[in-house]
């Protein structure tokens, strides 16, 4: 089984961006990262995104708010960021604390600055196959990895485990756009291992540690693991039991070091696209 790591995929995206920036005229693309509270995974992603923007030569500003900020104040502060003409794109770290109206933010974020595809407009564009929209970065990172690995999706049987708006549903649409024949599994799916065993490409985004073992994987299948979980020993792991599926899979992405390491490069790619669109 071949291990498909994220770093070479991320580097290929970064190099393209750096190349494009050589002829850039005008203000350097500017990302705003909005974080409420101090959740360790949010802070870790913020650090990774900041580093990535620096690497490709973009500007990045973090706007951090206390976890107990009241809803009205937060919505007003968000509006200021949203309306700032110097900001090309916004990354909102979610989920927000429960007392904040996340739905209101999804509806008010400018779709042209919504780099992680949280607005109804951008989700609709993903579903319509409209290339002017922005899909969720993690979902797009899955497609970037498959493209890099040279997987021709045309006519392939693809199964996605998970139906969230963050990964499952958008990645299913993106696979369909590449002419794959897509099945989506979820908690109510009958005989999930049997359904998955029919897949030539399997995308695991269920959020359950090591749920996918070799009983889910057909001989020669390509397996993309989007899950990020902590196992019983406190180690980071995916939704796929990597060692167990090695018997059957032809290619599998590791966790850590797989899809997650491509996500911030997709974010940078989206920022460049947004900056270009705003300056057009």
UniProtKB/TrEMBL annotation:
The record's annotation in Pfam families points to: THF_DHG_CYH, THF_DHG_CYH_C
Q: What does it catalyze?
A: (6R)-5,10-methenyltetrahydrofolate + H2O = (6R)-10-formyltetrahydrofolate + H(+); (6R)-5,10-methylene-5,6,7,8-tetrahydrofolate + NADP(+) = (6R)-5,10-methenyltetrahydrofolate + NADPH
Supply one GO CC term from the record.
cytosol
| Biochemical pathway | One-carbon metabolism; tetrahydrofolate interconversion
Q: Where would I find the Tetrahydrofolate dehydrogenase/cyclohydrolase catalytic domain in this sequence?
A: 4-116
Q: Which UniProt keywords apply?
A: Amino-acid biosynthesis, Histidine biosynthesis, Hydrolase, Methionine biosynthesis, Multifunctional enzyme, NADP, One-carbon metabolism, Oxidoreductase, Purine biosynthesis
Q: What is this protein called?
A: Bifunctional protein FolD
């Amino acid at each position: 089984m071949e291990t498909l790591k994220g770093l070479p995929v991320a580097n290929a995206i970064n190099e393209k961006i750096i190349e494009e920036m050589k002829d850039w005229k005008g203000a350097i693309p500017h990302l705003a990262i909005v974080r409420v509270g101090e959740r360790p995974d949010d802070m870790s992603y913020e650090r990774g995104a900041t580093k990535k923007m620096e690497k490709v030569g973009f500007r990045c500003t973090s706007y951090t708010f206390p976890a107990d900020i009241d809803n009205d104040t937060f919505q007003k502060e968000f509006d200021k960021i949203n309306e700032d003409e110097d900001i090309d794109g916004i990354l909102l770290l979610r989920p927000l604390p429960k007392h904040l109206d996340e739905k209101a933010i999804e509806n008010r974020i400018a779709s042209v600055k919504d780099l992680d595809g949280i607005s109804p407009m951008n989700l609709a564009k993903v579903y319509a196959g409209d290339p002017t929209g922005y899909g969720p970065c993690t979902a797009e990172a899955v497609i970037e990895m498959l493209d890099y690995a040279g997987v021709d999706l045309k006519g392939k049987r693809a199964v996605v485990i998970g139906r969230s708006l963050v990964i499952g549903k958008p990645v299913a649409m993106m696979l369909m756009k590449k002419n794959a024949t897509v099945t989506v599994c979820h908690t109510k799916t009958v005989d999930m291992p049997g359904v998955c065993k029919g897949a030539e490409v399997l995308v695991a985004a269920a959020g359950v540690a090591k749920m996918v073992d070799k009983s889910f994987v057909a001989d020669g299948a390509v397996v993309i693991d989007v899950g990020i979980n902590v196992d019983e020993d406190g180690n980071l792991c995916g939704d796929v039991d990597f060692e167990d599926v090695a018997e059957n899979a032809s290619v599998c992405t590791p966790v850590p070091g797989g899809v997650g390491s491509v996500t911030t490069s997709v974010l940078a790619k989206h920022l460049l696209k947004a900056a270009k669109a705003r300056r057009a």
